[in-house]
Structures are given as structure tokens and as C-alpha cells.
Amino acid sequence: MNLSFRNRIALHYMIATSIIVAIIFVVVYLVVKESMYQNIDKDLSFEASKHAGEIKLAHDTIKFTNKAEWEEIEHREVQINPVFIQIMDAKGRMMDKSPNLKNNELPFKNIETFGPHFNTYLNDKAIRQIQKPIQSDGKTKGYLLAAMSLEPSIMVLIKLRNVLIISYLLLLSVLYFISRYLAGRSIIPVKNITKTTNRITKNNLNERVDLPANHDELYDLSSGINKLLQRIENALERERQFTSDASHELRTPLSSLRGTLEVLIRKQRTREEYEDKIKYSLSEIDKMTETIEQLLLLARLDSSRKPDKDEGVLLPALIDDILLKHSTSIESKKLSVDFKNAFTSNVLVPKYYANLILDNIINNAIKYSKNKTTIHINLYDSEAGSVCEITDEGIGIKTEDIPNIFNHFFRSDALEHKEITGNGLGLSIAQKSADSINASITVKSNMGKGSTFFITF
Ligand code: ADP
Fold first, then answer.
1. Distance 329 CA to ligand 1 centre (A)
2. Which of 91, 146, 152, 257 is the most exposed, fewest CB within 10 Å of its CB?
């Protein structure tokens, strides 16, 4: 059965309430029935005891002493719920009976049913009866039977049962509508969420779900969705910013390239001038190519298409390789490298990601170092993991810029150092790679004196 959420809640309300009401109705019915029987039984016991004192035991017979008076009352008064009395001898033979029994006889039960009250029939009419032994000298001489009609009580019980069943059915239908109404009200926040989320597209991502007044589970759900929307909005905003920065970053060398070529074509130039301008244009093209490659790399790091199995490599060996790769720039700046390995065991790191991290950071250390200074690379174990510390004696980074250096295209003091080329993507790539292998990068810097990058694997 494919019930809506609202109807399912309503059904659960209904089932729970109808079970409780059914139990209450059954208990009410049973309590009324029991107290009716108790009242009849009390009356019967009283009548039996009263008439037991009006019996005369003779040799073989047992008779009532006041039968005449009794008949007189019978004539005079209308008895609404008469009590039938009958006397039997020990063998179950009828000895005497109240005048209201006329030709009828109360049924005699055998000896085991002494004491308790029981239901039976007199002339096809239901009666309640008690059977009391008549004793003399310690012997049972006979029995006194007292009975009352059960018809009025049964009628009351049938009426009560019908009333309860009808009111139960009415209650169920009323309950159905109330439950549907209440269920409808309680899922209003869910409907709001559906309405709002259906309305939201990437053009109106700033819309939010209305928070319900009560701080309950639906409030948590709504605020959870709002937080999710906020994160999506931030991510989209970052993406927009990134696209615009990337376009800008590529447009600048392109316009410079165009400008150079336009100037070049205006008139005849010397061979040296042509060579000079072409070399400049090629260097701009190289810059663009590098930026595009780094952008592609960033996109790859963001996507799920990352290398599944990144082979392990020994950290010192990886650093040696990177230093070798950059040896030309190290030599041209006359830098020395002070490399200390204090690892107590062989430290293996994922080659692809560790190379991206260290290559960018070592490349920066070289780029931003002052000539003829030293780059210190220290490897050591710490509680957090294996640390690679790279310190340069370079230009340093402004304290307020440190939190931004991992952002795309961020370049601190770029205008101050025009001779140092870059596009502000290297550390973003390093940070993304570190995130992929749960490594961390922290920075300490002293403006004008140098910077230290700590990479913990
Ligand atoms: P870039 O291509 O500009 O080097 P990065 O993302 O690698 O881009 O670095 C971002 C910015 O952080 C750099 O522009 C520079 O201002 C600063 N930076 C990074 N490393 C160093 C360093 N070792 N010394 C001084 N500044 C640094």
C-alpha cells in the first residue's frame, strides 16, 4: 500500500488511539457487568438467608412457615423484580416454593455447585440462582434455592454494548479526520522544505528554508539544509571567482602578446628586434602554458579521477630528486642547500602527492630566496608524524598575508618583486595534494628574513 507520509502518520495515530479506546471500552463494559452481577448476588444472598430463617423442618418435609402471609403480599403488591424461592430435600425433591413460581420449578444442581451463584434458565428466561444447604444437627436436610431474573440486567448490558460499539465506530471516523488534520499540520515544515528546495536553482541559491518555530527534529533538518545550501553557495561562489581569476590570469599575457605583435607588425624591424620580441612572446606563451597546466592539475585534484594507487617513495630520495630537478636555478642564484635527515626509520610517502607538495614548496624557497643564501631542509620525527621542514633566507611573507597564500592566484607583494614570476597557483596545488593524503602544511615567516614551511606526513 503506497500511503503518503501524512496518511501514514494519521494511520499510526489512529491505530494507537483506537487500541487504547477499545481497551477502555472493554474495561468499562466488564466493570459494569461485574458490578451488576455483584448487586444481584448480594440481593440473592440476602433473600436466601432471610428465607432460610422461615423454614420448618418436620420429619420428612421442609416447608415455609409464613406461606399464607407471603401469598397475601403476592396479591397485594406488584413485584418489579421478584425473587423466586424454592426448597428441595437432600435428594433433590421439591418440597415447597414461593407463590410467584406458580407451576414452574427452579432447576436443581447437584451437590458440587453449593455456594457460588450461577446463571441458568427458568422457562427459557435467563435467571441468576443461588443454592444454600439447609442443615440441622450437622446434617444437610435439604436446599434453599433463590433466584432472580437476569433479563433486565442483560438488556442493560446489551444496550451498553451497542452504545459502546456505535460510539467506537463514530470515534474511529472522527479520529481519522482529526489525525489527518494533525498529521497535515505536523508535516507543514517538511512541505516548506520541499517547496523551497524545488524552487532553488543555481540562480537563486541565496534562498533559505523557513525555520519552524519549535526547536525539534524538523528544525534541525531545515537548518541542516540551510547550512548545506550555504556550503553549496560558497563553493559555487569560489568556482565563479576562480573562473574569473583564471580568465583574467590568461587574458593578461594574451593582451601583452597581442600588443607586442601589433607593435612589431607596424613597420619593418631589425633582425635583433624581431628576435627580441619573439623571445618575449615565447616566454609569455610559456607562462600561459604553465598556468593552463596548473589549472588542469587543480581540476584533476578536485575531481574524483585521482591516482588510485600512489606508489610509496622514500622521502629523502624524493627531496634529492626535486633538488636535482631545480639544480640550475639553485646554481644560478648561488644558493646552498643544507639537508639534514634525522628520521629514525625509513619514511615512505605517496609519490604523486608528496612530489606535488614538495616540488612547489622547494620551488618557492628557491624563487623567493635572496642570492647566495642557504635553504635548510630538515627531516625529523614528531608526535604528529614525519616532518619535512623547509626554511629559506628569502623575502619572507607579511603576517596578514599568510592565511591567504594557499588561495588560488594569491600573490603577496607581487608588485614589489616583479622579477619573481608566478601565478599564485603553486601553494593551492600543494594544499590540495596535502588534503588528499591527510598531510598538513603550516607556515612561519619573518618579513625580510625568510620563511619556514612545515609539511607533516
Ligand atoms: P607563486 O606562483 O606566486 O609562487 P604560490 O601559490 O606558490 O604562487 O605562492 C603564493 C604566494 O605566497 C607567493 O606569491 C608569495 O607571495 C608567497 N610565498 C610562497 N612561498 C614563499 C616563500 N618561500 N617566501 C616568500 N613568499 C612566499
1. 16
2. 91
Q: Which residues contact 445 (CB under 8 A, 6 or more apart)?
A: 396, 397, 399, 402, 451, 452
C-beta of 426 in contact with ligand 1 (< 6 A): yes
Cβ of 412 below 6 Å from ligand 1 = yes
Does the pLDDT at position 114 exceed 60? no
CATH class for domain 312-456? alpha beta
CA-392 nearest atom, ligand 1: 23
Longest distance between any two alpha carbons in the chain, whole Å? 165
CA of 146 to the centre of ligand 1 (A): 112
Q: Identify the CATH number of the domain defined by range 5-158.
A: 3.30.450
The one-letter amino acid at 122 = L
CATH 1.10.287.130 domain residues, the chain: 217-302
Could you give the angle at the alpha carbon of 257 between the alpha carbons of 255 and 259, nearest 5°? 65
Q: Which atom of ligand 1 is nearest to the CA of 413?
A: 16
> Which segments of the chain belong to CATH 3.30.450?
5-158
User: 221-267: per-residue pLDDT in tens?
Assistant: 989 999 999 999 998 888 888 888 888 888 888 998 999 999 888 98
> Mean of the pLDDT values across residues 158-171?
95
Ligand 1 within 6 A of CB of 291: no
Percent of the chain with pLDDT strictly greater than 90: 49
Contact 411, 405 (CB under 8 A): no
Q: Quick check: CB of 148 below 6 Å from ligand 1?
A: no
Pocket test for ligand 1, best of 290, 326, 397 (most atoms within 8 A of CB): 397
| For the CA of 368, the nearest atom of ligand 1 | 24
Residue in 333, 366, 427, 453 to alter for ligand 1 test, most ligand atoms within 8 A of Cβ? 427
Q: Which residue has its alpha carbon closest to ligand 1 atom 20?
A: 364
CA distance 382 to 349: 16
Distance 301 CA to ligand 1 centre (A): 20
**Which protein residue's CA is at the shortest distance from atom 11 of ligand 1?**
411
217-302 under CATH 1.10.287.130, yes or no: yes
Residues 325 and 455: beta-carbon distance below 8 Å? no
Q: Which of 431, 446, 455, 453 is nearest to 397 (CA)?
A: 446
pLDDT in tens, 63-94: 888 777 777 776 776 667 788 999 988 888 88
Rounded distance from Cα 304 to ligand 1 centre (Å): 27
DSSP 60: S
Crossing angle of helices 188-199 and 151-186, in 10° steps, is 30
CB 421 within 8 A of CB 442: no
> Which residues, at least 6 apart from 324, have a Cβ–Cβ distance to it below 8 Å?
none
